[in-house]
Sequence to fold (203 residues):
Amino acid sequence: MSEALGEDEAVLWPAAAKKAIKVGPDREVVSVYPYRSGCPASLWQSLITKAERELTFAGYTNYFLWLEQARFGATLQRKATRGCRIRFLIGDPESDLTQAREQEEGVALALSTRIRVTLAELEKIRTRPGIEARYSSGHAYLSVFRFDDDMIVTPLLTHSVGHDAPTLHLRRQQDDGMFDRFASHVEELWSRGAPVWRGESHG
Fold:
């Protein structure tokens, strides 16, 4: 009908168009999940696979990725070989903050153990140029995972573990929007982080 009348659909049905097309600051929100465990593993796989420039995993342990993503280490190596920058921000397993969070969680598989699993997996692929890892305490209650212009954000609630965290899937659509704000947060943490492996530069 819009073609016959020579008018844009947004002119003919402005209310319907507004509902169908996000135009406000929330347009960067692709989807939401009450729990990270409710976010499909296939979505994570798709975002990881499609990323070409940057993969940043700023989860406190990042442990679940090694469990849920088949051949995750090999995928990261392949990505790095093709020029994708890969960064891990993780908590220090020896820090007071980690110990305090372990007490809060009170689960059998301790937080420090989950971090050490990630460290062990990263050790296997650390020789690949383009794969970096740093310790950071500034994201203990907020995890940010970036895949080029897509992002998954999980704020941790009190006395809960990562898979219970509310989860947002964001896609960059504007300057200084939600995506950019979380990205800046991660960059600040990265700049202050301590290299996991000796001999690597700080900054």
